[in-house]
Design brief:
alpha/beta, 348 residues
């Protein structure tokens, strides 16, 4: 029946051996109702099992348009925030009976485009999309690309304000505000900010939150305290270098990787957080790693993000519409206290 | 021509509008030779572009058996070793013209099996497989499952000795030996080991390396110094608790996550590495995170692992055979020195 030990057995092969039509075999193996004796059904299943027959999902999906496979496009698999989110989404998909495949864009717009096309052509049932920063800079082209998708999708974390699609993200402006408000309440007035300079992204929103808090507390903005970074460690290290040369007493860093670099520079000066310097960071991805450092940070609940994204996409796969734009609130996690130092240095 | 703005255009739709046969449209869009006027070809391409027609890869792959998509099955997307490896493999696939999709087994054997079947049925061209620990415990069943695959695959990192397939991994026995030898050379004789107790995996091999080094230096094994862990932080913390109650002066920890837990417990006692305690860890994934701690560690070159895995799979996709079992040597990265303390405590 087989021409070689690695040759795939077909539905026709099974039909020939069982002495029934290929159509009948297909009905039996796909558990569809059919008027065939139970013994014959049993025989077909045994042959299929013996021959390790795999129902051809590619062929099947062409007919039924269901692959029970969802895809997640993310910018960087090595970034802990995204890999944790991927794991949370994957767990939820598995419970719902879907396989999840993950593909990374390497934060490049051309890869986003390519992956959207490839995954659509392979017949995935739906897509979770965390787009590249580059794509966010090309908002209109992205919206056009997305409007052509024939399957449901949900934008996660990095969303476009004017995209009329299902999307879920954190309120980054609120995060920047909470971080800065905390430092102000501790008595600091000379507060640095290390931010990412993007036009329409979390960087701009977090900086806006910082500026809003300063304004509300009547503290003027000092351009010397504002340092650009790129969410990588090296840029945090360089920002520390620059800010240590000013008289600022505290700093809000817009992500944890930059904070790592900042801490390394402080450590070289023999300074520890929070005893010698006040920091508020963002992400809370470092809590298992820092010994001797108590880091106050803005926390984004990744489980909630994954949960809402899945709720939206699963709903759309069932044909539901409903609420589609979700903004999750970040919260502040205080570790250690900086009040005393703040009073000494910031007010002195 | 379209019934709704989200309805996919088919080859028949394009054929109708262009006034030629669907077969001719297919030849044109797949860049196959055909006797059709250049103007007509141009028209077909314009319609396809205007209608955002995507060549149906699922249908196409059924005919051509090429999807230009490779898959990577890994045990845990959140584990930094695997996510770094995934990124390295992904970069190499992209350069070679392949899309890479990643799927996680959550370290469960049933998911390995399911993913192998799903990915094969979706027509991926080849598979990179880092199997679950559970699967390694069921070596024979796994080998049977793998022998039925109809596409090339490469086993990475966790391999079975008797699998006659393409595989690449690190020499874990050598890693355990190097770590222990270093501590012995620093003057320690009371050396703990925190290891994972598996039958056929890196845990057993690393422990074997530790035992081999002790034997070679004529140091008897003390069962009190051997602590089981599960490669997670909590188990390292508990091991520290237990080993601090013994007189051992140094410890070899078989992975970085356990080391994190161990360091946390030491820190609670006011002890720092390497000043107050001697540790050799494994993986070198912590180098960016540890402030005030100099950690000597066994390093596995992830780039080399990804490079060899890709070389093997790309070769097989081109129909090449050749060398198929690669064992990469780990190396020791020394940070800080523990010699003085060792002499004081271990010999005292």
């Amino acid at each position: 029946m087989q021409q070689g030990c690695k040759k795939k057995v077909t539905i026709k092969d099974i039909a020939r051996e069982a002495g029934i039509s290929p159509a009948a075999v297909s009905l039996i193996l796909n558990n569809k109702p059919c008027r065939i004796l139970e013994e014959k059904k049993q025989l077909v299943r045994e042959i299929a099992k013996r021959e390790n027959y795999v129902v051809n999902q590619a062929a099947k999906s062409l007919a039924t348009r269901k692959s029970h496979m969802l895809a997640l496009i993310l910018p960087d698999i090595e970034n802990m925030f995204f890999s944790s989110l991927a794991k949370q989404i994957e767990n939820r998909c598995r419970k719902e009976g879907y396989s999840l495949i993950i593909a990374s864009s390497d934060d490049r717009w051309e890869n986003d485009e390519k992956l959207l096309r490839v995954l659509e052509s392979r017949g995935v049932d739906g897509i979770f999309l965390i787009m590249s920063l580059e794509a966010m800079e090309h908002g209109e082209r992205l919206l056009e690309e997305l409007s052509l998708l024939t399957m449901p999708y949900v934008m996660i974390d990095r969303t476009l304000l004017d995209a009329g699609c299902a999307k879920v993200s954190f309120d980054h402006g609120q995060g920047g505000y909470l971080a800065t408000q905390y430092l102000l309440e501790q008595g600091h007035t000379k507060i640095g900010c290390v931010y990412r300079d993007d036009k329409q992204g979390s960087g701009k929103s977090r900086l806006d939150g910082y500026l809003r808090a300063l304004a509300q507390y009547g503290v003027p903005v000092n351009e010397d305290y504002l340092k650009k970074g790129d969410y990588r460690m090296e840029s945090g290290y360089l920002a520390a270098q620059a800010l240590l040369a000013t008289d600022c007493t505290a700093v809000f860093l817009c992500n944890d990787m930059m904070t790592l670099g900042f801490l390394r520079r402080l450590y070289e000066e023999g300074k520890w957080v929070p005893q010698d310097y006040s920091i508020v960071s963002y992400d809370d991805s470092l809590k298992n790693y820092l010994l001797g450092t108590k880091l106050t940070t803005v926390v984004q609940d990744i489980e909630a993000l994954a949960g809402e994204a899945c709720r939206l996409l699963f709903g759309r796969l069932r044909g539901e519409g409903g609420e589609s734009q979700i903004l999750l609130p970040p919260r502040l996690k205080v570790r250690g206290s900086v009040k005393k130092n703040a009073a000494e240095r910031g007010m002195g």
